[in-house]
Amino acid sequence: MAEAVRYVCGGCGHAIEAWSDGNPYYIDEAGAKQYAYHPDHKRLARCIGNDSTHLCLSCGHEFMVDSRAPVTACPGCGAREIADTYHLDGQRCPFCKAGVFASDPGFHCIS
Ligand SMILES: [Zn+2]
Ligand SMILES: [Zn+2]
Question: What's this model's pTM, rounded to 2 decimal places?
Fold first, then answer.
């Protein structure tokens, strides 16, 4: 079961949604990475890794971080201030550089 959250910047209102379990993937017969989406449990059982969406807190670039090959810096600008989009609570907003993200209590979604 996955849960979704939405974080909203208190300064500019920029909203980011994230799923608790990221994007699980498996490698198919041809060696290509395939994402398994809910509720495909047969495919989920084959998953060997997980790509989770991260946000650069410096330039606002969103990118995937592979659990099998994690990176610690933004591929766009090289900043080390990156955050998992599921854990943005209290992080400074890179879009307006003034507000911070807070979870939206009115948004709740379960798959
Ligand atoms: Zn903002
Ligand atoms: Zn960046």
Answer: 0.84
